[in-house]
Design a protein that fits this description.
Layout (H helix, E strand, L loop, with lengths): L11 H5 L3 H39 L4 E15 L2 E12 L2 E5 L8 E2 L4 H9 L5 E6 L7 E2 L8 H34 L5
Antiparallel strand pairs: 1-2, 1-5, 2-3, 2-4, 5-6
């Protein structure tokens, strides 16, 4: 008399000969994809939009202080460049240096005429005004304006987040279906 063997989920023969592994693997891949996409979206949204916008709001209470530009130039950065304006200001009795033009990393695309205009309008020796954090005088900025490029660059991370959440919901729905099917003994 031959004994029937139960399907042992830990049996490699059963896993190899069934679709269980493929189904489980596809759900895991989808779940991993959703976590990576959502995480990347949140990271880029924070780094390029939310943190700089919060800094703009936070700088409203900063003190306007006279400063002198020591140098201004374009630094190669990615496909375009980054505006670098170095300046000196006096806070209290100490002479301090700053190099932040704005909170958005002053990035410009190739051939940026706007960048060239800013460099020309900030030659060495020019007197400007900067904003200084009274709680941390080493922290300063020349402009707290919000460039128009912030809004389109915020849309791409939001798209990543939406795709990641949709993929995660699909993965969770598939996990629930598989679990329900498994608990019902293979019946739908």
């Amino acid at each position: 008399m031959r004994m029937k063997m139960k399907k042992n989920p830990w049996s490699l023969v059963w896993i190899k000969n069934s679709n269980w592994w493929k189904e489980r693997n596809s759900i895991g891949t989808l779940l991993l994809f959703s976590l990576v996409f959502t995480g990347m979206g949140f990271f880029f949204l924070l780094e390029f939009s939310l943190i700089p916008l919060c800094q703009v709001v936070r700088s409203r209470s900063w003190t306007v202080t006279p400063a002198v530009v020591t140098e201004s130039f374009a630094e190669p950065y990615g496909r375009g460049g980054r505006l670098c304006i170095h300046y000196e200001y006096v806070w209290g009795d100490r002479k301090r240096q700053g190099n932040r033009y704005d909170f958005f990393h002053s990035r410009f695309d190739e051939g940026g005429s706007e960048r060239e205009k800013l460099i020309e309008s900030h030659p060495a020796g020019k007197r400007i005004e900067c904003l200084v954090n009274p709680n941390n005088p080493a922290e300063s900025v020349v402009s707290r304006s919000i460039p128009w490029t912030v809004w389109p660059t915020s849309l791409l991370p939001l798209l990543f987040i939406c795709i990641g959440i949709a993929a995660g919901r699909t993965a969770v729905r598939n996990i629930r279906k598989k679990l329900k099917k498994h608990l019902n003994g293979g019946k739908k």
